[in-house]
Design goal:
11 strands, four-stranded antiparallel sheet
């Protein structure tokens, strides 16, 4: 990025946004960009909007207005016309960016010249946004410095990043890290990358904390630091290999958004380095956990959808299986220091997870037949020890991440314990996945399951984030057998989660336990922050009202078998009103106060 020599204030009325961005960069060349970007010279972009137009209508109008202007071979005249027309349309900056990105100009050369004129000389955020959005498709390497500068301004960062991605992944990644890292834990790494010194970059990369907020931008960290290049230069560096595994696993998680691993261009090569030299890693429980987690990603996670060479993924899984079956690794997690009763909780959970999970990514599969092969894999994520998802494989490839980008598969309690996946003569619609935010925000994936003679049919899909999925027809006998196996396999479950499942089953079988107190089961699971604690949330709706209160009961694992703990909990519910021994956690404040309950802090 070039830097202006002058430091005097700029006149917002005559200065282009590009010059203004260079000016701001020149004031603090190595400093972090404010979280939302530098403020525009004339303040925040106007919150434009035209009442009465739907999103689709506004998009049609915007594209119709801009398309003929972009065909003008004179970029100066075209840019001036775009400035005027965008102002007349009064479309908000985010909408201008979104609508223009869908525009397909007839003369790409003329549109590219106009885009460059807009980005380099434009003084209005919306008009400059049109230029950036055009460069997402039409940009060339010479546009990188301008996009880097404009991306630091408020409202333009995401579009500039999208335009930079196909041109210079490292520049795009640095822009993201500079402007979106709220933790500021990555600032030292970003500063060192500018020096171009590989050894300094390696040292700064290894100094990045392992906590989740530091690895939130795992793909961008790998791209900015050129992790692939570092591995090529130092393939047997155990510290770099361990960090590589953590970054790959973090990229493979698809909680609430498309898994980043699918957009990491050198992913297959980086996996090959990690697995190929994993024997250089010390056989610690932490790294055993990491290797197993990466194996699960390769077996049934989004990483399985990468563009692998024939049998390459299977070879990597075979390599991990042989390594973990070796004497150094096989004995590692079985005996946490201090014994089962006194070892720290994290150590005990890790050892338990490794024992329960070790077989999952290496289980053999049957050879393909006349029907697609359907498999169910329940995965308890080692990193987020309360997160459990149900995965489906069709002919060895994960189904859900290919169809729904906004969240992982549903819990086994909702899909397996409920019996919803069983196929009957009557079609049943089943929610397979929900967005990490909520279904009401970013949707959910539904399929209709029915039995058709000797086949089980998955069809009538709803909510897919891409093209409408095809209808799948599975051999009914094989489907039923696999579903029965998955329903019996509770190896994913730990004590507190088993307690939760047994309590939930008991409440389903005996609805009168809660019904006599006007209570119903809201959810029963384990505490997000403490996976060794079972949590019941009960909903209370008094007769004659539609308002509800929610009560929670936290039951820490006391060391007894799960069946005994669940039986004791059900007995206490049977003995008296649960509202007397649970804690109010939410609902209608007005209702709570009218009934004499103190509102929780």
């Amino acid at each position: 990025m070039s830097v202006r020599d002058e430091r005097e204030p700029l006149d917002a009325r005559t200065t282009s946004l590009y010059d203004y961005a260079l000016f701001r960069h020149g004031i603090e060349p190595e400093g972090p960009v404010p979280r939302r970007g530098y403020p525009l010279p004339d303040g925040a972009p106007p919150e434009r909007g035209r009442k009465g137009l739907t999103w689709e209508e506004e998009q049609v109008e915007t594209i119709a207005a801009l398309t003929p202007l972009l065909a003008d071979p004179d970029p100066v005249r075209a840019a001036e016309a775009v400035h005027r027309r965008v102002s007349e349309l009064a479309v908000s900056l985010p909408n201008v960016l979104a609508h223009t990105a869908r525009l397909t100009p007839a003369d790409e050369g003329a549109a590219r010249r106009t885009a460059r004129r807009l980005t380099r000389t434009g003084t209005d955020a919306a008009a400059v946004g049109v230029g950036i959005a055009l460069l997402i498709r039409l940009g060339e390497p010479e546009d990188v410095p301008c996009l880097q500068a404009l991306g630091t301004l408020r409202g333009l960062g995401s579009a500039a990043t999208a335009a930079l991605d196909p041109l210079d992944r490292q520049a795009a990644a640095l822009l993201v890290l500079r402007s979106r890292d709220r933790s500021e834990l990555l600032a030292p790494l970003v500063g060192v990358i500018a020096t171009g010194d590989p050894e300094a970059v390696r040292a700064a990369l290894l100094a990045v904390p392992g906590e989740p907020r530091a690895l939130l931008f795992a793909r961008r960290i790998a791209e900015a630091a050129d992790l692939h290049g570092l591995l090529r230069a130092r393939p047997v560096d155990p510290e770099l290999l361990a960090l590589t595994g953590r970054l790959l696993h973090r990229m493979s998680r698809d909680v609430g958004h498309r898994a980043e691993i699918l957009d990491y261009l050198p992913a297959t090569n980086v996996y090959a380095y990690f697995v190929g030299y994993a024997d250089r890693l010390p056989p610690t429980p932490e790294l055993h956990e990491l290797l197993l987690a990466v194996a699960l990603d390769l077996h049934s996670g989004p990483a399985a959808l990468l563009n692998w060479r024939t049998h390459r993924r299977e070879a990597l899984l075979g390599g991990l299986e042989r390594l973990l079956a070796g004497p150094a690794w096989a004995q590692g997690p079985d005996a946490p220091s201090g014994g089962e009763g006194t070892a720290p909780a994290a150590e005990r959970r890790r050892a338990d997870w490794i024992r329960r999970t070790g077989h999952k990514p290496f289980a053999g599969t049957a050879a393909p037949g006349s029907h697609p092969r359907w498999e169910v894999v329940v995965v308890h994520d080692a990193v987020d020890s309360n997160s459990v998802e149900t995965r489906f494989l069709v002919d060895g490839r994960p189904l859900l991440p290919a169809l729904f980008a906004n969240g992982p598969g549903g819990s086994p309690e909702s899909l397996l314990d409920s019996g919803d996946l069983r196929a009957g003569e009557q079609p049943r619609e089943v929610r397979l996945a929900e967005a990490g935010c909520t279904e009401g925000c970013c949707g959910a994936l539904y399929v209709t399951i029915r039995r058709d003679g000797a086949e089980v049919v998955w069809g009538d899909w709803r909510g897919a984030t891409g093209a409408t999925p095809p209808e799948y027809r599975f051999d009914a006998a094989a489907y039923d057998a696999e579903l029965e196996r998955a329903e019996r396999d509770h190896s994913w479950c730990w004590t507190a989660r088993t307690t939760a499942r047994l309590i939930s089953a008991g409440l389903r079988e005996r609805p009168e336990l809660l019904g006599r107190w006007d209570l119903r089961r809201s959810w029963v699971s384990t505490d997000w922050r403490d996976p060794d604690t079972t949590v019941l949330q009960l909903a209370f709706t008094p007769p004659g009202t539609t308002e509800s209160l929610y009560f929670e009961w936290h039951l820490p694992d006391d060391g007894r078998p799960a069946a005994e703990q669940a039986a004791a909990a059900l007995a206490r519910i049977e003995a008296g009103d649960p509202k007397e021994f649970t804690r109010l956690s939410g609902g209608s404040r007005e209702l709570a106060e009218s009934l004499g309950y103190s509102w929780p802090p």
